[in-house]
Amino acid sequence: MPLLGRAGTGMERPASTRCLMNRWIKISGIALAVLIVLALVLTLALPRLLDPNAYRDDLTRLVSEQTGRTLTLEGDLGVSVFPWLGLEVNGASLANAPGFGEEPMLAVRHAAARIRLLPLLAGRLEFGTIALDGLQLSLARAADGRSNWQDIQERLARSEETSETTPEAESPSQTDGRFSLSEFNITGVRVQEGRLLWDDRQNGTRYALTDWDLKTGQVRFGGKV
Question: What are the residue boundaries of the structural domains of the chain, listed by start?
Fold first, then answer.
């Protein structure tokens, strides 16, 4: 009889362990479900809580610092956070170079861009496909041979030279926190209903290419090839 009693006591421990494990699995499952629901709610709610229009001045200032031109945002900005950080704008234009008139060098009816989150946190700009609907690009060359994009090209080249002379040990966190447009990658560019104007004042010729579509592969700006 004592042997039976000890045997009965020994059989209760596995049952108790199984009960504890089942309870732990159940609690873990509930916690996981709560986390998933919370993440889903945050993903859906964050675009509404985060108002990108509050950063309009920062965006226009960044473009002005990098290009020397004035960026005008006509419509409201839209933002998405999943699965990429996305930004949309309805109506935007980039001012022309001095001496080339009041017409903007670049204007777009609707633009959408997506940026990879992890490289962004490291201070690098890596874009997905950039969509440009109703793009109008006005390129011109003055009588003295200057082009209306020459100043931007020179500014980006100087920015690239500055980044090359920066010590490699200096991480993005050690800089002033600004992004540079001298080096970035784009998965592709898609243009719909584009319009390209070319005004060569040196030769007295003008051309217009209207209602065209374009789709490119990967585009890489700056850096060492």
Answer: 1-49, 52-221
